[in-house]
Amino acid sequence: MKVLHVYRTYFPDSQGGGQEAIRQICLSTQALGVENTVFTLSPNPSPKIIQRPEATVVRCRSWAAPASCDLGSLDAITTFRTLVKQADVVHYLFPWPFADILHELAPTKPSVLTYVSDVVRQKWLNAAYAPVMWRTLKGMNAIISNAPNYMQSSTVLSDSFIRSKLRQIPLGKTENVDEIAPDQTILKHLNLDQGEPFILFVGVFRYYKGLHTLIDACQTTTGRVVVVGEGPEGARLKAKVAQLGLKNITFTGRVSDPEKMALIQACRALVLPSHLRSEAYGLVLVEASMCSKPMVTCDIGTGTSYINLHNQTGFVVSPESPIELAQAMNSLLADSKLAESFGHAARERYDMLFSGKAMGQGYLNVFNEVLNSSVIHKR
Q1: Mind listing the pLDDT tens digit for each residue in 193-224?
Q2: What angle separates helix 74-86 from helix 97-105, to the nearest 10 degrees?
Q3: CATH no. for residue 75?
C-alpha cells in the first residue's frame, strides 16, 4: 500500500508536534508494509526530494506563511496531483487551509484526515475558512481523532455527520528508533550529571505553551527547571527571566534527538504547561511516558489530559496558575518515590495505548478500511 501524507512543513525544515506525528505514523506503518511519501512546503525546497528513513519527502516552495498557513504555487498543485495519482490513500494532517485547496483540485482517491486541532487563535481565519473546512471534512472517507476528550470537547467533531466518520487512534511513539540511544554529554555540559533532580520542558516556544506561567512558577520552585527548544516567543521569555532575576531556569536552545532523550531519561518529571487548546495532544508526553517519567500538565480539555492522568501518571493543574504549577513540580522534586510511582504508571499506560505498534496497526486498519470501501466521496 502506498500512502501520501500531507502537511504544511516537515523535517528537516521545521520541528514540532505535527511533524513528529507524521514521522511516527510513517515509521509505525512502514513496519507493517506501507510505503510512505510526505508532501510538504519549504522556504528552500532544494533538493526537491529527500529520502528519509521513514518516508520519501517531496517539497515545493512555500511562498508565504500568513497565520502559520504556508501557501504554495502552481508547482505545488501540479506536484501534488502527480503524487495523488501514484498513491492508494491520501492522509491529511488538519488544519492546513492550503491542503483544502490541494484536496479540491486533486484526483479523487480514498482520503483520511487526522484532526489535530481546532482553529483557536486565528478567529478571522476561522470565520473565512469554515465553509471550505466543512466541505473538506465531509469529503473525507474517515476522520481520526487522537484523544477521546478532544472528540468530546471540539464543536467541530461534535457534528453528527462528522461523528459518523470518526475513528480514535492515540498518537504513539516507536521505541528503539534512532534517538533512543541517548547522548549523555549534554548532561555534563549543563552540569546535570551529579544526580540533581530537575524539571524538564521540551517544545517549540509558541504562544499556547504556557511558558510565561512556568517562569512565574519558577519564582517558588525549589529545584532547577531546564527548558529545551526555541521559537517565536523565545526573546520575550528570556527577557522575563532576566527581569525577575531567576537563576533556576536554564535555556538549552535546540538539541539533537539523542540529547533530548538523555534529558528526558535524567529528569525528575516533564512539565507541559500549555494553556490553550492549540496544544491538542503533546507527543512529548508520550516520550516521557515511554521513559517512565511523571508529568505535569494543565486541564485544557485536550489530549494532554488523556496521556497524563491526574494523581495516576502525574499532576493536572489549572491553566495559567503559577501557584498550582509550582506546587505540583515541588511535590515531585521533593518525593522521588512518588515520582517513581507515577512514572511506572505512565510506562504501563504507554505499553497499553501509546506504543508505535498500536498506533501503526490502528492507522493501517483505517487505511485498509477506506481503500476497500466502495464509497469514495465525490466533491
Answers
A1: 778 899 999 999 999 999 999 999 999 999 99
A2: 60
A3: 3.40.50.2000
